[in-house]
């Protein structure tokens, strides 16, 4: 089981943690939400949780809780900047079976 970051995503996380002034990594998970079932949760990690799995890519630790891992196993997170106003993380999750029309939620 694994969740990975591209070099661009890892650099963005490093930059944001540096600006924040604290943090040991990035948390990725899911929560029930939206019309399709789940939404991604992205946050900083100050202390790991007891059920966290840790994956390291390009010097960034990615923390995933045990409940979320089966739904995002194999996912790659990229950071894309399409224009000055359009940038953000892009989730490439091989487990997604369906997405809502606005792209905010998904099912596995």
Q: Can you describe this structure?
A:
This protein has 108 residues and is α/β, with parallel strands linked by helices. It has one domain (4-102): Hypothetical Protein Aq_1857, Chain: A. Helix content is 17%, strand content 43%. The protein has 2 helices and 9 strands. Strand 6 (76-81) and strand 7 form a beta hairpin. The longest helix has 14 residues, at 7-20.
Spatial order of strands in the largest sheet: 3-2-5-4
Instruction: Measure the end-to-end span.
Output: 16 Å
Task: Give the DSSP E fraction (strand runs of 2 or more residues).
Answer: 35-45%
CATH superfamily label: HesB-like domain
* Tally of DSSP helical segments: 2
Radius of gyration: 14 Å
* Overall mean confidence score, pLDDT: 87
CATH architectural label? Sandwich
From the structure above, extract its key features.
Hypothetical Protein Aq_1857, Chain: A; 4-stranded mixed beta sheet; 3-stranded mixed beta sheet
